[in-house]
Every structure is written in structure tokens, then in C-alpha cells.
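Milestone M4 deliverable, item 7.
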Amino acid sequence: MNQQLNVATVTSGARLLHQEPTGQVRLIEFERRPFEVMAAVFGDRFRRYREEWAATSRFEHLPEFPLSLDLEVNASCNLRCVMCVMGSPNYVNPMAGRTMMDFGLYRRLMREAESRKLPAMTFGFLSEPLLRPDLADMIGLARQSGVMDIRLGTNGLLLSPSISEDLISAGLTRLEVSLDAFRPETYRRIRRGGRIEQAVRNVLDFLELRARRRSDFPILRLSFLRLPGNEAEVEDFLEFWRDKADLFSIQEPIYFEEAPISRQAELVELPVSPDFRCAQPWQRIIVRSNGDVFPCCSIYGLGMRIGSALESPISEIWRHPIIHHLRRLHRAGLYQDVAACHRCAVRSSMTALPESCSAPSRREA
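Output delivered:
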């Protein structure tokens, strides 16, 4: 797709590759063509996967098996970000009894992935997956199992040269680093506990290492979540990284009630778009570290458990009545008929007054 994005949103010259039906995520590129690189490596199977993804985004096609498994291989993080529920001082980790996914469960998931020709998977859900010491082994097994689009979501602070080397050698195909800022002081306010200087250095070292290895992979995607305290930095962020990264994700927030920014900021509730629909139940399955399975990656979706990967194969859970119900409602634009979806839509349609987010409150500092 060769569509120009609004210059007020991103730097002129960016091309829109994909936009989620909810409007919360836009994937853009500049000169590089990362999906073309992946298609050259993986061939027609990759092209068919992307065609299926586009069709599910239009609610026109339901695959027999998820197009993506999103895995919480560890339930821990090294930051306490203002937009995340884990950033709250009152957060109680429900996965505290099983913060690491059992490798035996992971092997079982990969056996099913291989038999069902799973095209994509993501490491990372309410977690920093680089905290898991055997992550490279998990990525290698996914690649051996035939998964093409292997994505890793990280804040990049633990992305040392040795870890970057391991990720490249293991066969990771997409490295997705969330930065959400350009200036150090903005980063410290948003991604509490981290330093952008370290994250940037790690990403640049990764790019240098990838170049020395003469590898196209992992493709580098950088993410920027637009918040009232950082919106003015989007242009500078993209201008700095446009000739370095392969892909960019410009995202809009969901103001979860438990997240520090939601208690710190003065929020204004705007009307939900009449076109609001979510394609996640058509595309993916979320598996938490204890094996529980959910139909979407929203915090609100955690109220809709549809099974356990410890007890049932994913192919069976994929046909659960709850997820079928969600598919029908979102295709018809009736998200409000499900309390969790309605809450997600309302909270994602909020905005915060900029002056109320200029600095962390004493309560949340």
C-alpha cells in the first residue's frame, strides 16, 4: 500500500503498510520494504499469510487455526511504565506463582504449530521477554517448527551485544523495540526505571552487529505510543530513526484504569468511532505463562478466559463459543454487546489534557 500518512501524525514520506481496524496501531515504512524481504525469503507461503492477515482485518476470512500465537513466556518486567497496569504501585501479579512458562508446554505448542503450519508468533505480553534466559532456545525451536514471522517485543534495555548475537543466530525475524520518546527526560517520565541512552545504544549496536553478519533478520520495528507528554516528539523520533529502522509502529493509548497515567491525568471521554471493530479474535490467541488462553491482548480481554493450553490443543480452543461470539459481534460492529469490548472501546477513545500529564504526580513518582 502506498498511502501517505497525515503529516501532522508522522514525518512526510512515510507509507502506510497496515492499520488495525480499531485505529490504535499504524505500521509505516520509509525506503525499506521489510515485508518484501520476508516474502523473498519465505516465498508464496509468506505472501499467502499476509493476504490472510489482510482478509481477517476486513472480517472476510476466518482461518482454521490462528495466524499468530502471542505468548507470555515470562510474567515479569524491568520497568514500571505509566501507561501499563504493571506500573501501578498497587499492581499484584496474578502470575506470581508461575512467572515462567514451562518449556514442556512450549514444546507442545510448537508441535501443534508445526503440524498446523503456524505462520506467526509473538514473544511478549505484560512482560519483558529478554528476562527469560533461554529465550534464544525458544526462538530457535519456533524457527525449526516452521514459524516464519517470529516477533519479539521488548523495551530494549537488556539488548546487549551478546543477546543480539543470540537472537540473530536463533532465527528471530522481527525485533520490535518500544521507545515512546525522543528526549531523555520524556523517556524517564514514561518508561520509569529506564534510560533512553541505554536503549538507543543497544539498538544501534544491534544494527551494527546485524550489518556485520550481513543478515536481513531480525527486521527492526520501533514503536512510539502517542501520549499527551510525548506527542511533540514523534517527528524528531522518526527523523532520527528513519534511515536506521526497517518499520515503525505509531500507536494510540488505551487508558486502563489501573495505569498510573490514568490516575495522574485529567481524562476526557470522546465518542467511540462508529467504525470501531477489533479483528484480534479472527487472527490470534494469547497464551499466558500459566497456560491460560485468551482471545485478545487487551487487559480487558483477560476477563474472557477461553481455555488452558495445558488441557486442550489450540485448535480446539480456537473454536470456543466465546471467541466465535466475539467474531460475530465485531464483524457486525456490535462490540458494545460484550462488556469487556465495550470497556476497551471506551477507554481507547479517551484523551488526556496535556497540561495534566506534564510531570508525574507525587503519588505516582
